[in-house]
Write a structure and sequence with these properties.
about 550 residues, mainly alpha, Arp2/3 complex 21 kDa subunit ARPC3, Hypothetical protein af1432, 3 domains, elongated, disordered C terminus
């Protein structure tokens, strides 16, 4: 069966049921064959059906492409409009009977006006969203410009940027959920959680700048709510202050009281200013109190999770590393007691120096405790652990002795990795020597002739932070002062100057951000309370020698007393 269709005609099927597909044709053929041969055992029944299936082929095939092309051609020939109305042309006069043609024109005008209004509305909405995106971009760039300028290492670390970005996104998402979807009070948004997490994970400055950006974003999202912004800034600032120097996990919970008090202050202040009733202020106070109680608890849980997920070491972890029950410190104390005591003294010195210049004193102490871990592998080769008077190096060549001494760096790093020390702590192990030489054995080898300096040089790297630079100075000073016979304050001061000058001239401090002014404060004053000199004066119980006139004056004061 064939159907001939002209080139300019589109095929139409008014009754699709009039045509059988192949499956239906087979079914009908089986029925007809069965009627012809009703006996089930008649072989002609199955044979006949098999022949039908074998030779029955479609005689009408649908050509989709041709059909759609012809249909589209027919549609294209249909006019899209009946006529044209020119600009400012009168459609119908007043008090005139409206014809069907006029009615059609008015209907077309209505459609055109509605279409234009929809387009203008869409443009307005699109511009509003575009403006909102620009404002959000400005706020975010404000915070990340701060990171780029003042916290470059954090800005260059994609994991840190990811963490900060996640905190911002989560806070904005919670704000949208609470206010737009759940219709809850904006004061239930856990803004203070973000403030405390950023402060603990990084520092107070990042916490303040970060939470300022978050508050601006959320404030815009909920309708430019100035009251919310002021309240959140005040309570967040209090939260940041409460955890800025967190040393114990319990301090997180002491922040609850501070947050509740600050919430009461800001709510009452704004309520009196706006003329709110006490009931309204009480409702807001309840919401903020709930957040004040829950925020430290949530922060406590998040800190542990984020430390593991992003490999960040907070002060809480550093405090735990100071515990003498830590497996590494217990081993160091038992296997290399001299090195252990040396590390404790260096820790005291490093902490005092860090306090003098505003560096991380806690990190300095922890780094000092673990910087010489490798010495407990062969403790007897280090002088502080030689108690019997026997020196193992007497039977070794200077090159072999230097190799053993240098290996304590590599062995220390291996132990740090084995026990899972954070990188921020294990960095102190190679950096406290930098690329200096094992000076004693280098000079001893030079007496025997020409030597290869690299055989006596530590692998490095050089210190790249204020904290690692401080430890390099303190470790060298402690060892040098211990070697002074009959130490007094002048000898110690001279030795400190000598050590610092040696490290500067050798370029060992070239990669760390310590300034000359900070090096001066690290040295400290003889009669001061910060820096190396006051601590060493206390360790060696050195009295300050005053000029004779001052001695006499001091004696007279004592006598009068």
């Amino acid at each position: 069966m064939a159907i001939n269709i002209g080139d300019n005609e589109a095929p139409t099927l008014s009754d699709p049921d009039a045509y059988n597909d192949l499956q239906n044709a087979w079914t009908k053929a089986r029925v007809e064959v069965t009627n012809l041969f009703p006996e089930e055992q008649d072989i002609r029944r199955e044979l006949g059906y098999s022949l039908v299936v074998e030779f029955m082929k479609p005689n009408l095939i649908f050509e989709r492409e041709t059909t759609e092309r012809r249909q589209q051609a027919r549609k294209d020939r249909v006019p899209r409009n009946k006529g044209i109305i020119l600009k400012n042309e009168r459609i119908v006069d007043a008090n005139t009977r409206i014809t069907d043609d006029d009615l059609q024109k008015l209907h077309s005008l209505s459609v055109a006006i509605d279409t234009k209004a929809v387009e203008e509305e869409r443009l307005t909405i699109a511009m509003a969203y575009f403006g909102r995106i620009l404002v959000i971009g400005i706020i975010i760039s404000f915070f990340f410009t701060f990171l780029l300028t003042y916290r470059t290492p954090i800005f260059e670390d994609w994991k840190m940027v990811l963490l900060i970005g996640l905190i911002i996104i989560i806070e904005v998402g919670l704000a949208f959920l609470f206010t737009q979807k759940l219709d809850l009070s904006e004061y239930l948004i856990p803004i203070t959680v973000a403030a405390m997490v950023l402060t603990i994970m990084f520092d107070a400055r990042i916490g303040f700048m970060g939470i300022t950006s978050i508050i601006l974003l959320v404030g815009i999202l909920i309708g430019n709510n100035v009251e919310f912004m002021v309240t959140s800034m005040f309570t967040s600032s209090v939260g940041i202050y409460a955890v800025r120097q967190l040393r114990r996990r319990s301090e997180l919970f002491t922040a609850i009281f501070a947050l509740i008090v600050s919430s009461a202050i800001v709510i009452v202040s704004q309520g009196l200013f706006k003329g709110y009733t006490w009931n309204m202020m009480g409702y807001d106070m309840i919401n903020l109190s709930v957040v004040a109680v829950l925020s430290p608890i949530i922060t406590y849980g998040l800190i542990g999770l984020l430390e593991v997920s992003f490999s960040i070491t907070t002060n809480l972890t550093l405090i735990e590393l100071l515990d003498f029950q830590h497996p590494l410190l217990k081993r160091l104390q038992h296997e290399a007691n001299g090195t252990f005591n040396h590390s404790i003294v260096v820790g005291n010195l490093a902490e005092a120096c860090a306090d003098a210049i505003g560096a991380n004193s806690l990190l300095c102490r922890v780094g000092a405790y673990y910087h010489d871990l490798g010495k407990m592998v062969r403790p007897e080769y280090f002088i502080e652990n030689q108690y019997a008077g026997e020196n193992k190096h007497d039977t070794l060549t200077p090159v072999m002795s230097a190799k053993i001494i240098k290996n304590h760096v590599t062995e220390g790093l291996n132990l740090a990795q084995e026990y899972g020390l954070p990188h921020i702590v294990s960095d102190f192990i190679p950096m406290h020597h930098g690329t200096t030489r094992v000076e004693y054995f280098y000079r001893k080898a030079k007496e025997d002739g020409k030597v290869d300096e690299k055989q006596f040089q530590y692998p490095g790297p050089k210190p790249n932070t204020k904290e690692t630079g401080i430890l390099m100075i303190c470790e060298a000073v402690e060892a040098a002062v211990r070697s002074i016979k009959d130490p007094d304050i002048l000898k110690i001061e001279d030795m400190i100057d000598k050590i610092i000058d040696m490290r500067l001239s050798a370029g060992q401090l070239s990669e760390c951000p310590l300034t000359m002014a900070e090096l001066t404060r690290i040295k400290g004053k003889v009669d001061g309370t910060a820096g190396l000199l006051p601590v060493l004066r206390g360790i060696y119980h050195i009295r300050i020698e005053y000029p004779d006139s001052e001695k006499d004056e001091a004696s007279e004061k004592v006598a009068q007393a």
